[in-house]
Amino acid sequence: MKYLYIIRHAKSSWDAGVERDRDRPLNDRGQRDAPRIGQTLQELAVKPDAIICSPALRTWTTACEIAHQIGYAERNIQTNERLYEASLQDILAVISGPAFPSVDNSILVGHNPGLTDLVNAVSNMHIDNLPTSGTVCLRFDMDSWSDIGQQCGQWQFFYTPKRGLMQASL
Known about the structure:
Rossmann fold; globular; alpha/beta
């Protein structure tokens, strides 16, 4: 059994005066919301084996805030260039490829529209948009991440700082 926590980065600033999109920092709301994601995961006793994120500053900062809240060492967070501006196919290639760790519980921090497409493609859940700081937990009854394109993940919960925690009725 595998669990994938799909997290869109916290709200970022469009007015930061940076030249490159990947260098945009979190804005005030994002700085408040990123730790709240981690606190929620900590309350749910989430213990990831791996945290993987896009190399963009906003995803890295979000991942670090989550790691801090759940007691995961920041130095163990992995970045993957393919996750920046990733399509669904790019994300699936990362998850099913050799760069994705062979672990059971993984947190993936990235961007839209790829993450929304991922949730809709590999789960029994449909969402119109994964909002900033949106977190979806999917459970897969499989042995290897390489099977993700052939499996349907069962949603366990959906969290946003604005709406709170929505758990699947089991």
